[in-house]
Design a protein that fits this description.
By secondary structure, the protein is mainly alpha-helical. Helices cover 54% and strands 0% of the residues. It has one domain. The longest helix has 10 residues. The protein is globular and about 30 Å long.
Length: 70
């Protein structure tokens, strides 16, 4: 399955390579207290919130790296 920022967070975290890429941009997401609640959301949706503005500037970079996993 091809991954992108439109994939669900849980699918990205299940793939070790994709998880490593995501953690490069959001180091604490795998241990976030609300992980159970947000894992069904896409990265694009999560990063659309004002609280994620510092991460959102890297959305295109993350998307390209996830898509490159093939």
């Amino acid at each position: 399955m091809a991954l992108s920022v439109d994939s669900k967070l849980k699918d990205i975290l299940r793939n070790p390579e994709a998880k490593a890429i995501l953690l490069k941009y959001t180091p604490n997401i795998a241990t976030h207290p609300a992980l159970k609640m947000i894992q069904m959301m896409s990265i694009r949706k999560l990063w659309s919130y004002p609280e994620a503005a510092e991460y959102a500037v890297h959305l295109d970079e993350l998307d390209a790296e996830l898509k490159a996993l093939g």
